[in-house]
Amino acid sequence: MLQTTLRLRALPGCGAMAEGIDLAAVDRETAGALRRGLFEHGVLFFRDQTLSPEDHIRLAELIAPIDVNRFFPADSRWPMIAKVEKTAEQQTNIGGGWHTDHSYDVAPAMGSILVARELPPSGGDTLFADMYAAYETLDEETKREVATLRAVHGSDHVFGEKGAYTQTDQPALARGGIETPESVHPVVIRHPGSGKKVLYVNPGFTLRFEGRTREESLPLLMKLFAHAMDPARVYRFAWRPGSVAMWDNRATWHFALNDYHGHYRLMHRITLGGEPLQAA
Ligand SMILES: O=C(O)CCC(=O)C(=O)O
Ligand SMILES: [Fe+2]
Predict the structure, then answer these.
(1) Ligand 2: distance of its center to the CA of 111 in Å?
(2) Separation of alpha carbons 264 and 151, rounded Å
(3) How many H-runs (helices) and E-runs (strands) does the chain carry?
(4) N- or C-end of the chain: fewer Cβ atoms within 10 A?
(5) What is the pTM (predicted TM-score) of this model?
(6) Is 127 in the pocket of ligand 1 (CB under 6 A)?
(7) Structure confidence at residue 4 as a pLDDT band (50, 70, 90)
(8) Hey, CA dihedral for 38, 130, 127, 159, is it positive or negative?
(9) CA of 254 to the centre of ligand 2 (A)
């Protein structure tokens, strides 16, 4: 397929649908266009792709260096690919709440490329929220309030030895010994790819503001979270066989809906490496 036909159609709420592209045949130039599109729109969606695990790895390497997630079980045949899996028997899914991946790292992952491998007959959509727009639509007073704040992010309450996943039927995700130290990022960052301001806190991993207790931090944190999950700035992506999503963790949040109990769902995820984040 001719790669020069890449078109990005902005979607209501968040992200863009990419058309005229075969992800198994991307060259350097097209990879550059995809990166620019990703940084502008926050998440790109693709339909009707045929992407082998090897194609998936090749595509990821053209976009950014791969960052292997230390919590998710890897597929033994392709150690760079994390399995995002829920069996027909399990009740808990992975990513079933608003979050952005790896914000607990000093150099948070830039994004992910998620490929649908086995889908339930219906349900299992993923929501994406636009964090550029979340920042832009804050009132001026709140913008001033958050301008110089920094926030502490951590993962132990989720993936640690005593983390949330231990209480679920996905206990493999909560393993001792790989806990991460907390890390601190500005609340408003300058997106390293687009130069735009982004609201960079998320309900999954942001614990508190630097210099304040969690209790002191919660009123403002909850206000920012409620603002950021406004349906006006959210897009709901319905997966089909052949669907692929490529998202930027700095510019979006995501939420995997868990409404398909009794059915199997398997996605392959490759995490793309990122960099330390600077204040806007
Ligand atoms: O399964 C999904 O749709 C997304 C799960 C998730 O949060 C992730 O892969 O980072
Ligand atoms: Fe996630």
Answers:
(1) 9
(2) 37
(3) 6, 16
(4) N
(5) 0.95
(6) no
(7) low
(8) positive
(9) 6
Q: CB within 5 A of ion ligand 2: which residues?
A: 95, 101
Q: Rounded to whole angstroms, how far apart are CA atoms 209 and 218?
A: 9
Atom in ligand 1 nearest the alpha carbon of residue 267: 1
Let me know if 99 is a catalytic residue.
Answer: yes
* Atom 6 of ligand 1: nearest residue by CA position: 95
Distance 269 CA to ligand 2 centre (A): 9
Compute the chain's Rg from CA coordinates: 18
Type of residue found at 239: W
- Residue carrying structure tokens 């491998």: 117
Mean pLDDT, the chain, rounded, equals 93
Mapped to the 3 state alphabet, what secondary structure does 11-48 carry? CCCCCEEEECCCHHHCCHHHHHHHHHHHHHHCEEEECC
pLDDT digits (tens, 9 = 90+) for 6-29: 999 999 999 999 999 999 999 999
**Ligand index nearest the alpha carbon of residue 126:** 1
Which structural domains are found in the chain, ordered by start?
3-272 (3.60.130.10)
Is 86:256 a contact under the CB 8 Å cutoff?
no
Tens digit of each residue's pLDDT (9 = 90 or more) over 53-96? 999 999 999 999 999 877 777 778 899 999 999 999 999 999 99
Q: Is 114 touching ligand 1 by the criterion CB < 6 Å?
A: yes
Q: How far apart are CA 71 and CA 159, in angstroms?
A: 7
**Whether 208 is catalytic:** no
Q: Using pLDDT thresholds of 50, 70 and 90, give the confidence band for residue 3.
A: very low
